[in-house]
């Protein structure tokens, strides 16, 4: 299994290169390209969110808690005092960072359901829905945000599989096949819950026709080809 440093470095490099491409061919504005690089990097450590005593899990839950706290505070009534708003924010942060984090790890195992392509789809749909409904991004940009999370997530799974192969001694480690999988077929209840959550998240995403039409258009790749080299 690749370590945290490798995952975040490779994800940041890959997301950075792709975000520059999106910027140069007109798929994203500078602010959006910066977000794409960040989201791709986050996606690159998301699969390790189920590893309770690892940095990715603590970092990701802390980020989620901070984001949720700000959302709750800024959506609260203006008649609340400053101290009350501070209290609401701290309570929201503490609730997500500690009890929810603890419960999450009670029902997840590392390289289980979260280490799967279905989980990658779930996080892509969640990011897309969040970007559109909460951040107010257009459907195209929201899907682009979601795609970068998905790509970073899959890159993490691929790296874990590559590290399961000992190329020097020409052998395959016992961990091979536990990272890059569609679902965790051994944990049927958890995998079923994951599929249900993914379907629900899919129902929340905005229309994707314009996004896929642009992404699969021959004109898009002609522009990329024209701008790729000096």
TrEMBL record:
It holds the Pfam family YdjM. One of its GO terms (molecular function) is hydrolase activity. Keywords: Hydrolase, Membrane, Transmembrane, Transmembrane helix. The chain crosses the membrane at residues 58-76, 82-104, 116-134, 140-159. The keyword Transmembrane helix applies. The keyword Disulfide bond does not apply. This is Metal-dependent hydrolase.
